[in-house]
Amino acid sequence: MPEILIQNARAVLTMDDRRGEFADCDIRIVDGVIAEIGSGLRSDGELVQAAGCVVTPGLVNTHHHLYQTLTRAVPAGQDALLFGWLQTLYPIWARFGPEEMRVSALAGLAELALSGCTLTSDHLYLFPNGARLDDTIAAAQEIGMRFHPTRGAMSIGESLGGLPPDSLVEAEPNILADMVRVVDAFHDPSPGSMVRVGLAPCSPFSVSRELMRDTAILARDKKVMLHTHLAENLEDIAYSEEKFGCRPGQYAEDLGWTGPDVWHAHCVKLDGKEIDLFARSHTGVAHCPCSNCRLGSGIAPVRAMRDAGVKVGLGVDGSASNDSGNLVAEARTAMLLQRVANGADAMSAREALEIATRGGAEVLGRGGECGQIRKGYRADIAVWDVSGIESAGSWDPAALLLAGPTRVKDLFVEGRQIVRDGGLVTIDLPTLVEKQTRLARALAEG
Hints:
Blueprint: E1 4-13, E2 21-30, E3 33-38, E4 46-49, E5 53-57, E6 59-61, H1 82-93, H2 98-114, E7 117-124, H3 133-143, E8 146-153, H4 172-186, E9 198-201, H5 209-222, E10 226-230, H6 234-244, H7 248-254, E11 262-266, H8 272-281, E12 284-287, H9 289-294, H10 302-308, E13 311-314, H11 327-342, H12 349-363, E14 381-385, E15 410-413, E16 416-420, E17 423-424, H13 429-445
Helix pairs in contact: 2-3, 2-13, 4-5, 11-12
């Protein structure tokens, strides 16, 4: 792998333990790792000019449903709450196959990369017509993004009191068998790994208690992480109290779903006891502010979580409920919502950016090697051009979320450049957009 020198950055925001910020700074990359940070560095490798730019760690997305990129702005679901929205979209998703999964994942990953994301998770919990987790992993490898896919599942259909149609659920023995298959085939626990697999039953209202428990046991045996949706809105809380006789946090703890190897999506309606539980157990949270706004779920208590010591990262959630996959825009929304809820001093632009970088890496178990610009860390780096109209007149160009671009200039993953001068270099984006549009039109006309 060639050596690279990112040169003459106007500012570098490291997100290291001291939250160091450096002006007129260079970064030298060797074999996919940050080798040196400072001014006036020299290298015989490739030079990447960053004059007029702010450099940050690559952003980290802790919750997504990449397959949903094919179903943005579906008319019948535009104004529905969570459960009604799902029931509108399930029949459409039931018509997907491997090609829809792969192309939609490519489009979602491309959008993330252009917004500065270098590491993303994905929660795929339905597998119609021969689709497999393998389809999304292939897409991530094509884009060149560091990937943490999770093998999700739904096992309780409408006939048994669940939310999804019976056609989209799987038998639980088959789910567990395929979980073993994908972990054995793709999970790489080594330092600098490009693919790590998690296990992720969809939600308490679409799988049994037994599957939740058995998945936790399997994940610990395989030494992989656990992920699911939890406490997303008031409907979610009501379902838990009616079906399980307890709140979602207690349900999670009873079934082994707390700990440093677990992260839950949304958590909009966690109460104080649940926040304390997550802090004590080092359980992570994927905060999805735009989706929570779109579905009217509420404002997650991120300020209270952070103050209690809960690990919090950001997630764009699916593009059927966002309907975007721009992670830097997600970070700005997270900042603004905490200010709406708690006052203008509740969250700074720098803290929101920290959640989007270092915070997400910690949630995904990569805090020791990703999410910071630091010697010895993986070279996952975003370069933002702050010489344009978005930042014109800004007194603090490092405050990207107040006055900065929402599209990255250059992006490096493991030292490999996947965005150059604002364009993807690993795939033909116009061809992908044409294919994505064609597939979406076929679904709409279906």
